[in-house]
Amino acid sequence: MSKVYQSFTDEEIKFIESNYDKMTYSELTKNLNNKFNVSKTVKSVSSKVNRLGLKKQKTEYTKFTKEQLDFIRDNYKQVGHSNKFAQLFNERFNTKRTSAQLRSRATSLGVNQGKHFSKEQLNWLKENSSKYYRDELTKQFNKKFGENRSVECISSTCTRKNRQWLAKPKDRRTYLPQSRYDHEIYLDSRKLPRIRLTDEETKQVGEEHRYAYLSQYIYWKNTGHFPNKDEKLVYLDGNNKNCEFSNLLLTDIRVNARFRLYGWNDIDDIRLKKLAVQQCEFEQIIIDVKKGNDE
Asked: What confidence category does residue 246 fall into, taking pLDDT thresholds of 50, 70 and 90?
């Protein structure tokens, strides 16, 4: 669905004309939205400035002094990360420069020569980015390659490469350890554990249940009843990956819908959650009885 264009009122245009050269586009957008209770984007505001023929002048806000330029030349590369440098710069000169502004200026001065990752380093990150949190990942990376990369550098690189790394493989299922079940267990597209039943088990419950949810399988093995299409299992602790039998409660699909509608699935207290299910069951009985009487 395409977005609905929000036009600018005369008052909003006057505000832009009065303030465009005093603020960054982000600040201008934020103040405009607060003042007129609107939700303009930075892109729409900057485009409006351009369409109005307004051009930012080189003011004290945008200019760098010679002292500031010398500070960038002498310190940017040594600090090693733009966010940290921005903090040091603003403390030193009592300004509000963004890391992007300072990085751009450092690049124009020739002191922001970013270090590229080798193919070997990228392959290592690809293999290990899912094994460690970003602090430990950075530590292990620097130790292996003798580097001094920042956490932000490693994290942003992994984020940029993530789509390429996570290209869909032929087999999209993520398999789980099988120590407790003599079956093939995997996570489906919703990250819920599922299980492939044996041919003998499939004969007992029906071919449509050959690939069943792990919770359905465990409930069946403990009760002899396989949940049908009109039934739903409630996870008492709220964790739909905890398929222990003690954590499962079978409900009618209509009761389950009412239970979720009331927001009671978010209750942490298991005893209260069971009572909430009972109340929904009682309400459903009343509805069914009333419907029977009406008919």
From this structure: confident
